[in-house]
Design a protein that fits this description.
By secondary structure, this protein is of the alpha+beta class. It has a domain of 172 residues: Thrombin, subunit H. It has 4 helices and 12 strands; from the N terminus they run ααααββββββββββββ. The chain is rod-shaped, with a radius of gyration of 52 Å.
């Protein structure tokens, strides 16, 4: 028996049962088109309702429907408000707390700046409060003749009880020179012992090696101002038979010889006698003097520069 031919097999395969085609599904573009159409219809409906609501009278069927809808939704609005209220309160509390912290930090910063300004103002006022005293002394009758003042700021004060010098912000460029007397608005401070172009070193009356020829303004008794054993000033070399009383004012004695001029001109206030004592074995009175100038707290002084050459 002869094998079937290729054409016969193809005919058999072609005559097999055909499958049914699945139902067509809408495409993605069609679905997007439908969604857009629905959105457009909803927007148009909303616009129509708004237009009708604004143009319709205050009473009517549409307003009745709106009122009924509002009444029906009222419980849901109340429930939503009550549910949301704790969250709203918590948000308000956190917001107010954050604002309070920020405001507190701002106020603290402003308070610190104001405190700094106040301290600076008080320091400046304390620093320059001595200037009016200097001007009053310079314009007063006790200011020495043939001298001009160089008012200057004190750069550095004594660093301790064993330091008896200070530095001023004026030097040879301002006319200050060695042995220039230095005064405050209250009285004698010391003398210049070292000079630089723009600064100078002043040795105070409290220095152990300091000596100032002085006199009692009331009685005319003369002596020398030195540093006493306890660090206070003392009027030395006053004979026991002379009279010096507590409360007497001590001033610089000034020059008595044109050939040997004194370092300090006459009449600069030095201090006031605080006590007077005497012992049987001593030849001189023990006269303690309280200086007028506060040697440990000076902010402004004046160096006295002679207006005429001194031989």
């Amino acid at each position: 028996m002869a094998p079937p031919s290729r054409s016969a097999r193809a005919a058999v395969l072609a005559s097999s049962v055909q499958r049914s085609k699945p139902a067509p599904r809408p495409s993605q573009a069609r679905r997007a088109l439908i969604r857009r159409a629905v959105v457009v219809v909803l927007v148009l409906a909303a616009l129509t309702l708004l237009t009708v609501s604004f143009r319709s009278p205050t009473a009517g069927a549409l307003h009745d429907v709106q009122g009924a809808g509002s009444t029906a939704l009222r419980p849901f609005q109340i429930a939503a408000t009550r549910v949301a209220q704790p969250f709203r309160d918590a948000y308000d509390y956190l917001h107010s707390l954050s604002s309070a912290k920020s405001e507190n930090a701002k106020l603290k910063k402003e308070n610190a700046e104001l405190r700094k300004d106040a301290i600076s103002a008080r320091a400046s006022a304390a620093k320059y409060s001595q200037l009016p005293k200097l001007l009053h002394f310079e314009q007063g009758p006790t200011f020495p003749k043939d001298f001009r003042p160089v008012n200057v700021e004190v750069i550095s004060s004594p660093a301790g009880p064993f330091t008896h010098t200070l530095e001023i912000a004026a030097g040879s460029s301002s006319g200050v020179r060695i042995n220039s007397p230095v005064v405050s608005g209250d009285g004698l401070v010391g003398r210049v012992t070292n000079v630089f172009p723009d600064t100078a070193i002043v040795t105070l009356l409290s220095d152990p090696d300091s000596f100032v020829a002085a006199r009692d303004l009331r009685t005319g008794v003369r002596g020398g101002i030195r540093t006493g054993p306890s660090g206070t000033l003392a009027l030395d070399e006053v004979q026991k038979q002379l009279v010096v009383k507590q409360g007497d004012v001590i001033v610089t004695a000034g020059t008595h010889s044109a050939r040997f001029p004194d370092l300090y001109p006459y009449g600069i206030p030095i201090g006031r006698v605080s006590s007077v004592g005497a012992s049987d074995t001593a030849s001189f009175l023990q006269v303690q003097v309280q200086p007028f100038a506060n040697l440990g707290s000076l902010d402004a002084v004046a160096a006295l520069v002679p207006t005429k050459s001194r031989r």
